[in-house]
Amino acid sequence: MRFTSEQRLDDGVLEREFTLGEIPGTLWTPGSAPAPLILTAHNNGLPKADPRLVARARYTAARGYTVATIDAAGCGDRPRSAADEQARAELRRAMRAGEPVDEIFESFVGPLVEKTVPEWQTTLDALLALPEIGGPVGYSGWTAVGIRLAVVEPRIAAACFFAGGYVPRAQREEARQVTVPLLFLLQWDDEGNPRQRALDLFDAFGTKEKTLHANLGGHTGTPWFELEDTNRFFGRHLK
Amino acid sequence: MRFTSEQRLDDGVLEREFTLGEIPGTLWTPGSAPAPLILTAHNNGLPKADPRLVARARYTAARGYTVATIDAAGCGDRPRSAADEQARAELRRAMRAGEPVDEIFESFVGPLVEKTVPEWQTTLDALLALPEIGGPVGYSGWTAVGIRLAVVEPRIAAACFFAGGYVPRAQREEARQVTVPLLFLLQWDDEGNPRQRALDLFDAFGTKEKTLHANLGGHTGTPWFELEDTNRFFGRHLK
């Protein structure tokens, strides 16, 4: 892990860009240590530098968490194959047209999840090797990656998943194997995530300790107070 | 409004029993005034002295809210007619047997809601006439009564409803007229409240600012942190 830049923010949080092989990432550490670590895996369509994602990470770090994010393979600003670009375009077109997207989604996002999870594990190894980072470890964000990671990675102690209307078949089937405490956050009118599928997924999770939060509005309309609720959820399970 | 007893609790909260005509109630006022008022209307099958209800009211008052509850007509320790007792027994029997309960429910709970709401309005008038109580006013608890009260009573500024699987037809139809900020709390496996009906009710509320919280488990299994979340919800809208 190689740090390429750093800046100290007003509230004492240290924000550092890093690379780990081909993986670019950002690490936020709060002024006070030791702090629980939260891996925030954003939706594959956004770069990790998206202002809303950065604002959330800084807010969370200022409240006493170490936060890390990466652009996983094929995501964010990472190179994309011509086939990936074509699949993304086709997915967007089909969604706009209101056509069924399951097959495109399955053939495109399924492999993306398979490639992303090992990169998160590599990142987690490197993060926990840093002297300033301990545990325990939480996961927040992209549902499909989080399911797989929670199933294969025993170091994940609690998870917050967002949306989850479209999730590859493999992860829908793995959902019952998720046994860590879970906060499942969805937008009631999410234009890209069918509500009933998200509710079915919540029902399927194997954990005994799961909470659903839903708010009115579209995919990007999550109210700010849900970030505070997420931090409190991690506070109950990681602190 | 006549106070019949009072005790000062450890955290400075004053707990007073009162009667208002035939209505028995309890009022908790925090050490610091003025405080927003929360009307907590419990399920009609419980008395207001139920230890879990009292614990929640004390907890909320200790966090800076005035809390009031009553035993409404035919509820709690109030006299019940032979017809009411028979309807309650029949409802319990049908639920245990897994038989449809809509008609019993409609004919029994519908009129109960109609009788309860004016008693809450009378109580609210009397409470707001006390020098130590101002506003704004929130409502927490029994869904059907809360819907009717939120529709007919402009002094209600925010509401938290619990369960809501069985709600009389009149209130299901009025749900779209509820326009105050709303927190809707349900138990995912509530044995007495069909999940899909509760989700449909959440969908029907007319308010633009509504949040759903659901947790695994049966009717009485709501985790304690939801009480903290409810207090924060009221904090955002009443303080």
TrEMBL record, chains A, B:
Keywords recorded for this protein, A-Z: Hydrolase
Highest taxon listed in the record's lineage: Bacteria
Molecular function in Gene Ontology: hydrolase activity
Listed name of the protein: Alpha/beta hydrolase
Species name: Streptomyces phyllanthi
